[in-house]
Specification:
There is one protein chain. The protein folds into 3 domains: 5-107, Gyrase A, domain 2 (2-Layer Sandwich), CATH 3.30.1360; 126-207 and 377-436, Four Helix Bundle (Hemerythrin (Met), subunit A) (Up-down Bundle), CATH 1.20.120.430; 225-364, P-loop containing nucleotide triphosphate hydrolases (Rossmann fold), CATH 3.40.50. Strand 4 (49-56) and strand 5 form a beta hairpin. It has a 7-stranded mixed β-sheet with strand order 3-4-5-6-2-1-7. It is flat, with a radius of gyration of 29 Å. By secondary structure, it is α/β, with parallel strands linked by helices. The protein contains 14 helices and 13 strands. Helix content is 44%, strand content 18%.
Length: 443
């Protein structure tokens, strides 16, 4: 982390503008060697944008805007230089190569944010929120990532950690000074505080499903017999013609996946091959894939033709299925009138809002406060907090059974380490490598 690093921070491809970023003790010196303008970067005030040119020796590469951010008031906590050039692929790569020739080193994925974490500019939950913010596909996902980046989740974790530290300090003081006995009232107060810590951890764990949905989307499989309108439903939900619609059975042979925004929740729709008896080997492979997708789905939309008799069964709540009776513009068959289902017409779009309501209610339980998403934990947080909860419960059990204070201290230490791992207090090289390897270059 002592090297000066450089990378292109904008996506690969052509655009109006590309941005390159330098960070490290020699960042300003490297910029001095390539930039010519009214100020040298080393002489310019922090955060003042300079107009000038990038030169490779006597060759001018591009007109640029350059900004210096001096440590520690920068994203990484180090000296940072940002260079905005024209967005051509060649010009940005030529400038990057020039920075390497002047002493900078290529940045690893997420290395700028990793340096920000290591330099105390953010905790690990905020660092992870940077990537969540970049990948957000809906307004709720964006709001959740912004809240986490602001430090809301980290604040709650630090509060839990402080409570555990206070408990541990009390227990270890008793171990070191056994003559200072803990009276029953104090012991009960400690146990009550530990139980409140457990309740706080449990409340965070309850946001794990919400966090997974916001980050990964609801995997929703559209299935049913051929020619019931599965592809038509996909196109209707997407708002454009994505799948081929035909009266010929077996038109859809393979799965088609697209993401829609449903009331701020990302829904990953999977259109599948129709399920029927068939001797066609390719169609059989498509149906086999359909069954696999159904097994791993968060939600199944089982589409049936509502204008025909015996069009389908009621949805199975245990399997997270919703029965969708399509073609209701043709009239509902007598046998389908009392079936519990959502009735729609892909032709007239009737019932589309009711289907959206049914999907949202089934997945989110019908009682979600969208303001609570700012603390939606991810899978890594969940594992750490589960460990912390178990250790805090074991400590509480040891208190109630009046076991040795050493046993209580061991469990409190374990809970403290697990909670600290969420914000990176008990960080390890392996943990950081795993987290930041998912980042894009330049961030």
């Amino acid at each position: 982390m002592s090297d000066t690093i450089a990378a292109i921070s904008t996506p690969f491809g052509e655009g109006a503008v590309a941005m390159l970023r330098l960070s490290g003790s020699e960042a300003i010196a490297v910029a001095d060697g390539v930039f010519r303008g009214s100020f040298r970067p080393s002489a310019a005030p922090s955060r003042l944008q300079l107009f000038g040119k990038i030169f490779d020796g006597t060759d001018m590469l591009d007109d640029v805007l350059l900004t210096v951010f001096r440590a520690p008031a920068s994203y990484t906590g180090e000296d940072v230089v940002e260079i905005c050039c024209h967005g051509g692929i060649l010009v940005s790569r030529r400038i990057l190569q020039l920075l390497f020739e002047r002493g900078a080193h290529p940045a690893n994925p997420g290395e700028f944010t990793q340096r920000a974490f290591l330099n105390g500019k953010m905790d690990l939950t905020q660092a992870e929120a940077v990537m969540d913010l970049i990948r957000a596909q809906t307004s709720l996902a964006l709001r959740a990532a912004a809240g986490q980046l602001e430090g809301r989740l980290g604040k709650r974790i630090w509060e839990i950690r402080e409570d555990l530290l206070g408990l541990l300090a009390h227990v270890e003081a008793y171990i070191d000074f056994p003559d200072e006995d803990i009276d029953p009232d104090t012991g009960a107060a400690l146990l009550g505080k530990l139980e409140r810590v457990g309740e706080t951890i449990e409340s965070l764990l309850q946001t794990a499903d919400q966090g997974r949905i916001l980050r990964e989307g609801i995997r929703t499989v559209i299935c049913g017999e051929p020619n019931v309108g599965k592809s038509s439903l996909l196109n209707l939900l997407l708002g454009y013609e994505r799948a081929i619609v035909s009266e010929i059975p077996g038109t859809t042979r393979d799965t088609i996946e697209e993401v829609i925004n449903l009331r701020g929740i990302p829904v990953r729709l999977v259109d599948t091959a129709g399920l029927r008896a068939s001797s066609d080997s390719i169609e059989q492979q498509g149906m086999a894939r359909t069954l696999k997708h159904i097994e791993t789905a968060d939600l199944v939309l089982r589409v049936a033709d509502g204008s025909r008799g015996n069009a389908g069964m009621e949805s199975d709540a245990g399997k997270n299925e919703i029965l969708v009776l399509n073609k209701c513009d043709l009239g509902l068959h007598e046998s389908q009138r009392d079936v519990r289902a959502v009735r729609i017409s892909c032709k007239t779009t009737e019932g589309l809002e009711a289907l959206a309501e049914a999907i949202f209610t089934r997945v989110m339980g019908g009682h979600v406060n969208t303001g609570d998403f700012s603390a939606a934990i991810n899978a890594r947080h969940q594992v750490c907090l589960q460990k912390a909860l178990q250790s805090s419960r074991d400590a509480g059990r040891a208190m109630r059974e009046a076991l040795s204070a050493e046993f209580i201290a061991i469990e409190l230490h374990s809970a403290l380490d697990a909670v600290g791992e969420v914000v990176g207090k008990a960080d390890s090289e392996e943990l950081l490598g795993r987290i930041f390897s998912t980042f894009c270059i330049g961030k």
